[in-house]
Design a protein that fits this description.
The structure holds 2 protein chains of 2 kinds.
Chain A (H helix, E strand, L loop, with lengths): L4 E3 L2 E4 L5 E6 L6 E7 L6 E7 L2 E5 L7 E4 L6 E5 L8 E8 L8 E2 L3 E5 L1
Parallel strand pairs in A: 2-11
Antiparallel strand pairs in A: 1-3, 3-8, 4-5, 4-9, 5-6, 7-8, 9-10, 9-11
Chain B lengths: L3 E4 L2 E5 L4 E7 L5 E7 L5 E7 L2 E5 L2 E6 L4 E6 L8 E8 L7 E2 L3 E6 L1
Parallel strand pairs in B: 2-11
Antiparallel strand pairs in B: 1-3, 3-8, 4-5, 4-9, 6-7, 7-8, 9-10, 9-11
Classes of the chains: A mainly beta, B mainly beta.
């Protein structure tokens, strides 16, 4: 069964460092998303991406964050200068359409900023 | 902004029991998703609903659009059903999902 894959599964980084989280969405999907879940809290939307541009973003997704689809398969989330409060589980998701289609999630990347 | 509430927050059941988890939301939606999150953290999609009822194995999901309410039922529960069950909604033409806080289910022998 096709799945969304994320790498790495766990990343530890020092405050102020740049991190790139990687995702390979399901191949025929057109919509891509990043969500995050701070420990003990609910999952929050960060950004959605379609047709090589951001279609929607939350207030969390400030100038420190960026997304890119550098080739035909990868979808990346970059955090330019990490803060302690960026520590969270980051989930990538993809869907065929956006309105009434199922979203498929990756296993997540646990980011720890020290 | 859509507020998504789930109840109960925590649920303990014995193997074989029938389980119901509830989700309510404040604004009309285009779709509602039920998701399962295991202790390792990964999220698995169970159902997507915009009306009526869906069934998959021992899982049944229903939605009442007028009452802005959905339920997830698990029949003949089993310890492997132990997980966090999350309701998430998509509102209007927005692409994002808005998540509830989840219901932590523990099924014991």
């Amino acid at each position: 069964e096709p799945e969304v894959t994320q790498t790495p599964s766990h990343q530890v980084t020092q405050m102020g460092q740049e991190v790139i989280l990687r995702c390979v969405p399901i191949s025929n999907h057109l919509y891509f998303y990043w969500y995050r879940q701070i420990l003990g809290q609910k999952v929050e939307f960060l950004v959605s991406f379609y047709n090589n541009e951001i279609s929607e973003k939350s207030e969390i997704f400030d100038d420190q964050f960026s997304v890119e689809r550098p080739d035909g398969s990868n979808f990346t989330l970059k955090i330019r200068s990490t803060k302690l409060e960026d520590s969270a589980m980051y989930f990538c998701a993809s869907s065929e359409g956006f309105s009434n289609t199922e979203a498929f999630f990756g296993q997540g990347t646990r980011l720890t900023v020290v | 902004k859509n507020e998504v509430e789930q109840s109960p927050q925590n649920l303990t059941a014995q193997e074989g029991e029938f389980i119901t988890i509830n989700c309510s939301y404040s604004v009309g939606i285009s779709a509602l998703h039920w998701l399962q999150q295991h202790p390792g953290g990964g999220i698995v999609s169970l159902f997507m609903l915009s009306s009526g009822k869906k069934k998959h194995g021992r899982l049944i999901a229903t939605i009442n659009i007028q009452e802005k309410h959905s339920s997830l039922h698990i029949t003949a529960s089993h310890p492997r059903d132990s997980a966090v069950y999350i309701c998430a909604v998509r509102t209007g033409t927005a692409s994002k999902l808005t998540f509830g806080t989840g219901t932590r289910l523990q099924v014991t022998l």
